[in-house]
Amino acid sequence: MSGRAQLMWDQAVTGYDFGRDHPMDPVRLGLTRKLVEAFELDRHMDVVAAQPAGESTLRLVHREDYIEAVKAASADPRSADQAYGLGTLDDPAFAGMHDVSALIAGQSVGAAEAVWRGSALHAVNFAGGLHHAMPAAASGFCVYNDAALAIARLLELGAERVAYVDVDVHHGDGVQAAFWEDPRVLTISLHEHPATLFPQTGWPQETGAAEGSAVNVALPAGTGDAGWLRAFHAVVPELLADFRPQVLVTQHGADTHFEDPLAHLAVSLDAQRAVQVACHDLAHEYADGKWLALGGGGYAVVEVVPRSWTHLVAIAAGRPIEPTTLIPESWRQEVYARTRQLGPARMTDGRWPVAWADWDAGYDPADRLDQAVLATRKAVFPLRGLLA
Known about the structure:
Elements: E1 5-8, H1 27-38, E2 45-48, H2 55-58, H3 64-75, H4 97-117, E3 122-125, H5 146-157, E4 162-166, H6 173-178, E5 185-192, E6 214-219, H7 225-243, E7 247-251, H8 269-286, E8 291-294, H9 305-316, H10 329-339, H11 368-380
Parallel strand pairs: 1-2, 1-3, 3-8, 4-5, 4-7, 5-6, 7-8
């Protein structure tokens, strides 16, 4: 049905499991799907399970020898070749790894195809957003780079301008690397400063080989709601207005949250929701509404991730959830049954509405957040013919 939002889901994606003690617990996916169901959002979307990405699709981004290495490690995890980033602490090999990684990639590629062809206006794959995987290496909990594969498929289908906005706490290095020399793709990443967080890339001076096609906002550790939203609005809308993408692809890692155990930003669920709304609105303003939204990082797997991504699904479905809304008791019982933890009671951290200061009102050259924004604007905007 043209115009309906599409939710990409196959229960088998929860098999993307690096093991019991790994931060990327697949329960975060299962609990998100259950919360989407508890709010009956799936009644207002087409729920679709796409086919796994085939080898020809995977080769749009990944080298053939790497794909073969993933397959070999998938068949015998003990044989994993660390030269390809497999069998490491971050990316332990596990049985079936190739199949489930290709399945997650297939959901993002299928979503991209649906949006481009008009069978869906918006599409969400919250199991995706695995933005660290490189052409020939796993990295940062990511085996196949579904975000880059979705963009590559859009280009293959004829797209001439695709914008990628990544608000995960970690730099979207793999997507940037995939399109470093391609002026058809504008990559924008807002992330914690590389001096304090993996993958130690994403400096403002990384602007791409294609005249400002890569944009990086390196935020000081400790940045909270007001600074995060200020930085987003000081950079992203103006660049999208200039670039005029035909499709907007966004990555919504929930690990910017103040409760996330692996990073150092101090963003609330309410600010995450505000950026999700902004991405939706920007897609309508500059990309004719064509919006593909992905998940990503997020390691507060009960308290934060399911709520954040359910907000994302709700916005895409045209059924935004008011932040003060009580969470259905059925979901909280599901949380306890699966984790023996008590789930949150509301869809807010109590910070709604979130206030922030517009960049056009002026900036403070002594403020670390404003210094970060200004560094990005000075590095990139002149390359694109814009005033810094």
